[in-house]
Amino acid sequence: MSRLLFRAIRSGRVLPVREALADGADPNARLVKSGMTALSEALTCGHVDVARALIDAGADVNAPDGDGCRPLDVALLYAGRPAVKLLIERGAEVNYIADDGNTGLMAAAGFGDAALVQLFLAAGADPNVAREIDGLTVADIQVCTINSQDAPAGMRKSSQRILDLLAARGATVHSIQEIESIKDARWRATQEVNAPRRVSTAVRSDSRR
C-alpha cells in the first residue's frame, strides 16, 4: 500500500493520492531504506497540493525524515514559500533546532527571502535563540553578512531587510565587535569543556606505557 501511495505522490496528482489514502494507505508512511515520510516526499517533489491532501488525511507536519530533516526544512529547500506557509498554518513547530545546529528561522533567513522570515516570525519564531557552535543568533548572522566585503551587494541588502524585520520583532542587534567577542567567548568555553577530556586521554595513554 505504501508503494502505491509514494507512486501517486510522485505523479503530482492529488486524486490518485486521495484514492490511495481512501484504500487504507498511511499518510505517515515511510520509505523503508531512507526513512523518507510521505509528506517529505511530496515536498521534495514540490507538490504542495499533494502535501495538503496528506496533511488533511493526518500526516504529521513535524515528523522528521530518516535524515532528521523536518517537513519545514524540506519545504524551504524544495517547495518554497507556499509550502512553508501551508505547514505553518497547519501547526508546524517553528522554534526548533535542526541537526546542523541552526534554528528554523536561521534556515529561512539563509535563503535571503524576507517574506519567508516574516512567516516564521509571525508564527512566533524566537529571533534571540543562539546556535551552539558559535553562540550567534540569526540577527548576528545578518550583521556579519552586512559587514562582509566578500558578500555581494544584493546579499548585503537582503540581510539588511531581514535584520530590520528581526529587530522589529525584538531581536537583539549586536555590533560586529560584540559579535566577535561572543564568538571568542564561546570558543574559550568550548576549550575549557574539552580540556579535562584531553588531560584524561593523556593520563590513560601514559599509564599504558
What this model shows, in words?
This protein folds into two domains: 1-93, Ankyrin repeat-containing domain (Serine Threonine Protein Phosphatase 5, Tetratricopeptide repeat); 96-188, no CATH class. It is built from ten helices and no strands. It is mostly helical. The protein is 60% helix and 0% strand.
Question: Quick gist of this model?
Answer:
By secondary structure, this protein is mainly alpha-helical. It is 60% helix and 0% strand.
- Name the CATH superfamily classification of the largest domain: Ankyrin repeat-containing domain
Give Rg in angstroms. Answer: 21 Å
CATH topology of the largest domain: Serine Threonine Protein Phosphatase 5, Tetratricopeptide repeat
Number of structurally distinct domains: 2
How much of the polypeptide forms β-strand, as a percent range?
Answer: under 5%
Task: Set out the fold topology.
Elements (H helix, E strand, L loop, with lengths): L1 H10 L2 H9 L15 H7 L3 H9 L14 H19 L14 H6 L4 H9 L15 H9 L6 H16 L7 H32 L2
Helix pairs in contact: 1-2, 2-4, 3-4, 3-5, 5-7, 7-9, 8-9
